[in-house]
Amino acid sequence: MARVRAGEKEEGLEKHIGLLKLAQTLSFLLIFMAGIIIGLAASSHIDRYFNSLPQMLSSSSSSASLQTIPDYSNCTVIHRDCSNDDDDGGGVKAAKKKDEIRDCWSVDGFVRPEEVRHRMSDDELFWRASMVPVKEEYPYDRVPKVAFMFLARGPLPMLPLWEKFFRGNEKYLSVYVHTPPGYDMNVSSDSPFYDRQVPSQKVAWGSPLLTDAEKRLLANALLDFSNERFVLLSESCVPVYNFTTVYSYLINSAYSFVDSYDEPTRYGRGRYSRKMLPDIKLHNWRKGSQWFEVNRKIAIYIISDSKYYSLFKQYCRPACYPDEHYIPTLLNMFHGSVNANRSVTWVDWSIGGPHPATYGADNITEGFLQSIRKNETDCLYNEEPTSLCFLFARKFAPSALAPLMNLSSTVMGF
Ligand SMILES: *[C@@H]1O[C@H](CO)[C@@H](O)[C@H](O)[C@H]1NC(C)=O
Ligand SMILES: *[C@@H]1O[C@H](CO)[C@@H](O)[C@H](O)[C@H]1NC(C)=O
Ligand SMILES: *[C@@H]1O[C@H](CO)[C@@H](O)[C@H](O)[C@H]1NC(C)=O
Ligand SMILES: *[C@@H]1O[C@H](CO)[C@@H](O)[C@H](O)[C@H]1NC(C)=O
Ligand SMILES: *[C@@H]1O[C@H](CO)[C@@H](O)[C@H](O)[C@H]1NC(C)=O
Ligand SMILES: *[C@@H]1O[C@H](CO)[C@@H](O)[C@H](O)[C@H]1NC(C)=O
Ligand SMILES: *[C@@H]1O[C@H](CO)[C@@H](O)[C@H](O)[C@H]1NC(C)=O
């Protein structure tokens, strides 16, 4: 019995060694396969293996170092669901969507980001928006776009006029709308305004929250790498030329259009605080309308600045308003030579007081619109004098919509 047992033991030991060898061989195989998978993943076929890779790795306990690969199943912002857009049946679409492989790293997501919703904080958003490609050529046919950024206190009464203005030019523009949080814009799904509300926060007029909202709009618009010019508008703004004219005016301009002037009164220099020294000196200080138009480079500069902005947040308090001084001063200090120092948005301050004139239905005539379009005020465009100074105008009451729609084709060319 004992011998037999010993023999059994020996046999068992041999079996054990055999198993060990088998395990060794298997682990070699495992490592080899992992190598192949990594090799494939690193190859140009990365997208094909994308979804299955994290699952395969998580089921194998020996790949602790590889488990750090994040879960890409929920992609937001620039990541795009590649399911077919032309699929009509709702149920079929949903089922198909589930089966589709989501390529979260496709360049398409950068080029045609479809979602403006995201869960990034302002800090995360501004950091991401500040990224600049170093390589000069784009790996796609980049058609520069104009980003129309609406800073709205609620509904957009001029929406039908804007829709008419945009029609047929969708390829050359993007729309972004910042509204009070919780406000839901109800527009039809074929409108350029559909699903274009950016994650918004409360805005108090005259406070730094207003400049925060401007920066938030800029940063959201920067996420689309095709946006080249960025124009800030309000719900009371209207276009006064057709899209072709506006687009070519902005895209071909060597200058940005930010109102920036020195006002030696208490409404200008009087709002400067010596506490901003030594970084901002009185001779740097500028004033200007908040309704700016900037190119991509300057937009990135504005959202990337925190040094000067924090000084404004601390020391520019009523009767100092950051929205009237921050961007005009920043541009004067660092980008003065590429600023036209004028706004492309017409406004009438002639009535005096803190608010400009508002135009309603009774005021809208062909003569009035022509006076905005061809104002005698001489201005420079790419160093040449021109009478075309304004592309947009404010302020217009909701009642002005009907006569403006009526005159848009005969007077404004759209
Ligand atoms: C993905 O989204 C679902 C539903 O919104 C959520 O339950 C899940 O936790 C998310 N996963 C990750 C990794 O964020
Ligand atoms: C949105 O607008 C449509 C058409 O104008 C209307 O039928 C619908 O009730 C509106 N929805 C909301 C939530 O207001
Ligand atoms: C836009 O207006 C200009 C004149 O301001 C005109 O020459 C041009 O044909 C118009 N473009 C379109 C597409 O209507
Ligand atoms: C705008 O003002 C800056 C000073 O901030 C100046 O250098 C620049 O030449 C001005 N631009 C034009 C087009 O006059
Ligand atoms: C607009 O028209 C009304 C009525 O004719 C007039 O009282 C008002 O002064 C006009 N407003 C402006 C800004 O011209
Ligand atoms: C130009 O615009 C100003 C207001 O900005 C206005 O007072 C003036 O009458 C306009 N000029 C012409 C020729 O229409
Ligand atoms: C539209 O314009 C024409 C001519 O300018 C005018 O006769 C008509 O009353 C206007 N209609 C509206 C709704 O303003």
Automatic annotation (TrEMBL):
The keyword Kinase does not apply. It comes from the Eukaryota. One of its GO terms (molecular function) is glycosyltransferase activity. It is a single-pass type II membrane protein. GO terms for cellular component: membrane. InterPro entries: BC10-like (IPR044174), Glyco_trans_14 (IPR003406). Keywords: Glycoprotein, Glycosyltransferase, Membrane, Transferase, Transmembrane, Transmembrane helix. The chain crosses the membrane at residues 20-42. Pfam families: Branch. It is found in: Membrane. The keyword Protein biosynthesis does not apply. Its main location: membrane. This is Uncharacterized protein. It comes from Brassica oleracea var. oleracea.
